[in-house]
Amino acid sequence: xxxxxxxxxxxxxxxxxxxxxxxxxxxxxxxxxxxxxxxxxxxxxxxxxxxxxxxxxxxxxxxxxxxxxxxxxxxxxxxxxxxxxxxxxxxxxxxxxxxxxxxxxxxxxxxxxxxxxxxxxxxxxxxxxxxxxxxxxxxxxxxxxxxxxxxxxxxxxxxxxxxxxxxxxxxxxxxxxxxxxxxxxxxxxxxxxxxxxxxxxxxxxxxxxxxxxxxxxxxxxxxxxxxxxxxxxxxxxxxxxxxxxxxxxxxxxxxxxxxxxxxxxxxxxxxxxxxxxxxxxxxxxxxxxxxxxxxxxxxxxxxxxxxxxxxxxxxxxxxxxxxxxxxxxxxxxxxxxxxxxxxxxxxxxxxxxxxxxxxxxxxxxxxxxxxxxxxxxxxxxxxxxxxxxxxxxxxxxxxxxxxxxxxxxxxxxxxx
Amino acid sequence: xxxxxxxxxxxxxxxxxxxxxxxxxxxxxxxxxxxxxxxxxxxxxxxxxxxxxxxxxxxxxxxxxxxxxxxxxxxxxxxxxxxxxxxxxxxxxxxxxxxxxxxxxxxxxxxxxxxxxxxxxxxxxxxxxxxxxxxxxxxxxxxxxxxxxxxxxxxxxxxxxxxxxxxxxxxxxxxxxxxxxxxxxxxxxxxxxxxxxxxxxxxxxxxxxxxxxxxxxxxxxxxxxxxxxxxxx
Lengths: 416, 233
Hints:
The complex is a heterodimer.
Chain A: H1 2-12, H2 14-46, E1 54-58, H3 62-69, E2 80-81, H4 82-89, E3 94-106, E4 109-114, H5 117-121, E5 123-124, E6 128-129, E7 132-135, E8 143-146, H6 148-154, E9 161-162, E10 179-185, E11 195-199, H7 200-206, E12 210-211, E13 214-215, H8 223-228, E14 235-236, E15 238-243, H9 249-257, E16 264-267, H10 269-310, H11 314-322, H12 327-368, H13 379-395, H14 397-410
Chain B: E1 8-16, E2 23-32, E3 37-41, H1 48-56, E4 63-68, E5 71-72, H2 78-88, E6 89-92, H3 104-114, H4 116-121, H5 125-135, H6 152-164, E7 170-174, H7 182-199, E8 202-207, E9 218-221, H8 222-225, E10 226-230
Parallel strand pairs in B: 3-8, 3-9, 6-7, 7-8
Antiparallel strand pairs in B: 1-2, 1-4, 2-10, 4-5
């Protein structure tokens, strides 16, 4: 009956109570939403590369190497010479090696030169392989395989011609050597979606008439002539390496890092991802802290609402006292009320979160390439909701203790 | 007669509000017999409210004894006094008796929630509440209605039903009729007395209105039993 009375009392103040519940619901939605985005981002981040034991590039920082080789963010300061690449490839520990060559772009997307082995060796989301959705993997020198986002954004279909631009965000185009879209990859949720993949030889081919980053004036080698040339690259940007036995990873890493002919760097993708996440983690923590503060604000709002209702409810409390309720019944009634409001707010917040996710999921995916799965609330979210209810109860102790004092002083007579 | 034979017995009680020096209440001797109806007449400021609080145990006398149904309530802890009040005393106030947001049913049954013994005397609470409402002349469908929706007269009758349920030995009414018109007043008292007599409860009503006197077994003037001291500020 006490629970029913608490409910009835809340209903009688429906408008104020609804506003309080809404405030709590929005704060809970924000907090859980941030959590969802955070864990989604972290997961999609960690899922970007798997199955690669080492990434090799010119000596720089491990995070930088990871960023440009996997995430296509930033640029390589230096290249890995073809001789060094060959040396590493011939080492007995190496099971497979895939070269990647970056530096050109097509519209807003990066162009990556590699071998067809890339499609077999590159794995994402715990071992998933790339798959072709339309067409086929590049075969000809001037074939390009494009990621799902490239195809979708630029409206490309198999067979369409594309022109690669020199450098990034450049107006100098490799107009003399147009490419043809040979295949479109299925969506992966990784940077591959936003990459134009061509053969390593193709990268060489489009730079035939170029020297030191500029086109040699007046020189334009015909395509047929290029096809006859030796298109062995002088250097590549980085290489993905798989070892025969996991035990050899560290040995090979040390050997590459101490490679005498050229300053090189070999990194373990998992370790570099961890390092990178530590940097991102600060912003992440700040985001969680801010959304937690919003919950605290909503809680204080509720406390203020209860406080301001105390005066008009002194009669109500006096009636309870007259009927034999001890002062602690009054106290627990207010705490119960607050816990009910917090619980309703938390539930509503959860409902709003899932509604919001349902609406925003495709938008976030297309805007940020971040797919947030809609799954049942996790244990962690359950604890957050429970925490909100407990916080509501604890916060309401402040006005409840005041009500306790008031009802002790008032007894059954209220003199207003 | 000993204290235990009276439903209410105050002897040599003195009380002073803490921190307040300008008012003190002294009651030398005040007793009520079982099943009688008593009107306690007093002007406002005569200490009626303080006396009621003493009887109900929400405040404690500085000295002297307050016996309710044979129990010295000064010897009870505050929690025990709260339960004791719920068990022994049915209360009706001048107005704002009910929780306006709760149904009439919940309002009537509320004291039973805090008084297990009194609840034990009511075998079928819902049926009993319904019967009380009918006997007090409330409409049939009143039980499910929100108390705040009723007229003042109806609210007072619901309060009476709440005071009567579980037949507490003492019913204390603080000016229950002052907000009612003369006709409703008379009906209200008739109904209240009919019910209290049927259950053998003592009714002590506090009022400043001496016109009601002829309906009671006994009329006591506050001034005869209580000595209030006021010091000019």
